[in-house]
Amino acid sequence: MARLVWLVLAVALWMVAGADAARAEERLALVIGNKGYTREGWMPVIPAEADARDMAAVLRGLGFEVTELVNLDRRRLLSAVQTFGERVKAMKGGGIALVYFSGHGVGLPGNDNYLIPIDVGVRSAAEIERDALSLGFLLRQLGAAPNRLNVVILDACRDDPFTSSGGGVNYAKGVEGFQPTRLPEGTILHSAASPGTRARWIEGRDNSLYTAHFKREIAVPGRSLQEALTATEEAVVAEANQREFVQTPWFEGRLSLASRVWLKPGEQLPPPKYVQDCADCPELVKIPAGSFEMGSGEEERKWYVSQGGNEEFVAREAPRHRVTISREFLLGRTEVTRGQFAAFVNDSGYPTTGGCSGFERKTDEKLSWQDPGFSQTDQDPVVCVSWEDAQAYLRWLSGKTSKSYRLPSEAEWEYAARAGTTTWRYWGDDKNNTAICAYANGFDETAMTENLPMLDVVNCSDGYAHTAPAAIFKHNNFLLHDMLGNAWELVDDCFHISYTDAPSNGMTWAAERCESRVLRGGSWYYPPRVLRLAIRITMPPGDRSFTSGFRVARTF
Ligand SMILES: [Ca+2]
Ligand SMILES: [Ca+2]
Known about the structure:
The strands form 6 sheets. Strands 2-1-3-7-8-9 form a 6-stranded mixed beta sheet, with helices on both faces. It has a 4-stranded antiparallel beta sheet with strand order 10-13-21-16. It is an alpha/beta fold. The protein has helices at 2-13, 17-20, 48-61, 74-89, 125-131, 135-142, 209-217, 225-242, 298-306, 311-314, 338-348, 387-401, 410-418, 436-439, 445-449; strands at residues 27-33, 65-70, 96-102, 105-107, 113-115, 133-134, 149-155, 187-191, 250-252, 284-287, 290-294, 321-325, 329-332, 356-357, 363-364, 405-406, 488-494, 517-520, 536-539, 548-550, 553-555. Helix 3 runs parallel beside helix 7 (209-217), helix 4 runs parallel beside helix 6 (135-142) and helix 7 runs antiparallel to helix 8 (225-242). It has 15 helices and 21 strands. The site of one calcium ion has 8 residues, from helix 15. One calcium ion binds at residues 441-442, 444, 446-447, 462, 464, 524.
């Protein structure tokens, strides 16, 4: 059943692969093949050296800088993993770190998996635990990877030789009671065999059964890693069936992490899968019609107050009420970027003088979207733009494309941000703020290192002290990025102090004379309690802030 679910998800995820691959990524690999075991009880792993050699060659072809090592004893194995871990932790921004091991492995029930150095004996489980390389140690050396991907490939058995019938390493099959691996954030694991079972080599072959297929599948051009892993699993299972034994590769971690494309450097990217009306136009995602509960519940608002928030302020998220969005619409997959806004200003000559509010929290004439007080790339969200500036941009964009661009209504924004979830964030409630750094650019440890004026800090590092380029962080179920964090997003509605009498049809809630507009989603310069789907702040329509931008909507 697990495999069926995986295949269904594979179809759902293929479409996101293209965009994430656009960034050049640093790629490091540690490839180990242990063949020549020296202590009694271990057979040589005949294909291990060839496995390592072939995997190293394929990975180099995919742009990896590879450290290739064979026949490592305990001291060299631990030290290789430690040294590699230091390099991985020093990787900047995105990237992929991959560890491949071909050799003997042991899974001890209720304990851990172990990769066996060539000089370790096999008399007891205690000896393995003391002298072999535990998977836990390996994962700790790689560290959590919220903004990159750690991949561990184990072409090794995961059985327990000590409970097998004959003792030694004549392998038990189907041993029960293995605990799942606890993977750090951003890490995936693929094993040649499921816990408690053997990985095979077919006599006369250069490579193990798993590596023979894996090395071929990851070299297929234009594939995501996730597609390659699925294809490997299929091929291994099929060949094992044909040869009348069972070997089922085993995946652990979050499948979506493996959906990044595994392209050769310089290879043509697949065409984009988003609606885009012109080269400088924002990429759009189709948002289906549907209903949802808008606003926050009492427990969430109490939590907000317990985190230092103001009770009267958070009351504006109530009452929670049902809203139906009756027609599908298009929404920008990211905030409008600085480069996209520049195309508008250059083309139209639209004046953006008048200053912007920065750290001093009052209008500073020196600040503007071109200089918000920190450096930005063209891919960062444009900030220091008012509601009126956004309207001017949307008029220009509609004229240029003959399409009907607008800001989303507040209800459309929250509906799209929730993307079918009912939790406080689109990745869960996350009351301890442990996953924020993978999903949203907020006020984090990176911001602390820049000596920015203090806020309550997210206890992790998202890698960005100010704004981050669009779509660096993980998307929600509708493929939208940065709905929480990065820049606050202006919506079309006039601000109302509560949801009492709010429309239930998803339309803009207007007012005859509007003195204040609504912003949603929190931003890079706000504490974790603010990075929630229900949060609402306001700003007069002519004001600008270095934390706020916008995202476009388009009627079909
Ligand atoms: Ca940040
Ligand atoms: Ca945002």
